User: Which sequence fits this backbone?
DNA sequence: CTCTATGCAAAGCTTTTGCACGTTA
DNA sequence: TAACGTGCAAAAGCTTTGCATAGAG
């Protein structure tokens, strides 16, 4: 679990400590294998350590974010989602508006666009945190029968 | 001010009403000319009508969102931002991590990418709401002298 | 042993909701 | 004058913070 060692080392470098709670958060992120909300992480960590506090979860996620060990995703819902960056290549997140599913897509296809942006408006996109919303293939099928876009509250 | 007429008509179609408060919100969004948070909008509307309540702002923004008259942007900050869609072509928002500035970029350059996505993973991106974060040209210059990325809280 | 991290409790912020009153069409 | 919208107040979520204690190194 190289990710955990990376975390351990980052902590050591700053004189910080590897606690069971921090290990648990990391472990849950691994086990879940997808983006999860602080609340979901809290519930899952609670299953192992019933005494853990929500604030510890938030503090740990903040730490992991600082260390770039997690990616923060805005799914359009209230709570942001946290996903283990692990050693994976940064990728684009596609969030389905209907079912909430999140797909990871390779950034290669975006390269021409990114280059263009950098050349024209000199804007450098943060590759570690791109999220787009839309409708996944499955939900397109389901939705094809009705109007799909509802304008009423 | 065609936007206001559009709003007026949408309201009429549903038997809803054009109140001074709703006009004020629309007016502020016009005047600001960029994405603004509910709080900023509240403050600006308050300058005109001191009695207006925050809840009215939220309700109005929600209404404008339903009518697709505003675009919601996640800038990475706590509050989402609202920008008048007006009659503009949907565009991509580039949020600068450093100065918070938001640039609008034409979606044309993304087209090959979007087509590719649709063909490969069958995902249809919502064009009205794409936001990416990064560093704008100005801030790149400023940052070039230091390490830029700060890992401490 | 020292200094960090945790749990607890409380507060802070943003957003939502119920309700009586005011206003629009 | 019949709905609809607003202000007010309160509540509801999510997140942060202060502090005494527990625990890692």
Assistant:
């Amino acid at each position: 679990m190289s990710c955990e060692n990376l975390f351990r080392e980052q902590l050591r470098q700053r004189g910080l400590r590897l606690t069971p709670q921090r290990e648990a958060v990391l472990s849950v992120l691994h086990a879940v294998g997808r983006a999860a909300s602080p609340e979901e992480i809290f519930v899952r960590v609670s299953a192992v350590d019933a005494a853990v506090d929500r604030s510890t979860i938030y503090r740990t996620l903040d730490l992991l974010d600082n260390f770039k060990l997690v990616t923060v995703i805005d799914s359009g819902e209230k709570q942001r989602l946290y996903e283990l960056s692990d050693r994976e290549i940064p990728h684009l997140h596609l969030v389905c508006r209907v079912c909430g599913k999140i797909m990871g897509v390779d950034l290669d296809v975006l390269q021409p666009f990114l280059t263009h942006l950098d050349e024209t408006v000199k804007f450098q996109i943060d590759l570690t945190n791109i999220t787009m919303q839309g409708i996944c293939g499955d939900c397109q099928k389901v939705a094809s029968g009705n109007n799909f876009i509802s304008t009423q509250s």
Chain A touches chain B at residues 62, 66-68, 74, 76, 94, 96-97, 103, 105, 109-110, 112-113, 116-117, 121-126, 129-137, 140, 151-153 (CB under 8 Å). Residues 15-17, 19, 21-22, 51-53, 55-56, 59, 78 of chain A lie near DNA strand C (CB under 10 Å from a C1'). Chain A has a mean pLDDT of 87. Helices of chain A lie at 2-13, 20-32, 38-48, 54-66, 111-120, 137-143.
